[in-house]
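So, could you explain the following?
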Amino acid sequence: MKDKTITDLLKKNGYKVTQKRRALLEVLEHNARFMSAKEIYESLLSRHPGISYDTVYRNMSIFTHLGLLETTSLDGERRYRLHECSGDNCQHHTHYVICLECSTTMALTDECPVSGMKFPENFQITGHKLEVYGYCQACQENI
């Protein structure tokens, strides 16, 4: 997602575009995997020593609410990743394989497997997500 689109989305929803928010998004942009708030916090400490864990966690909630982030839960901990398709014009969703060791995240590019499933006629689907867990090649070699 482009920086201007993120900036416009934040402003449109009444949020200021601060250095800390930009830094948080930059960390996520440079890590194509799901990251915990703690990992994000630790990666920001050297450049922003005054940042608090609460600031990171609060902004992750804001960004998730605005559709900028996707979330998952690994080992009982919420993890965040920049949404590949964000904002008002999002037309698709993505499914992932996620390494349980290093959290490497890879998008599945095939057609959505849920689209061929049969659901009860009186059930209105509003969304879904599919995540497959295992070990990437590098981690398999270290096990």
User: Anything to note?
Assistant: The helical segments are 3-12, 19-29, 37-44, 53-65, 137-142.
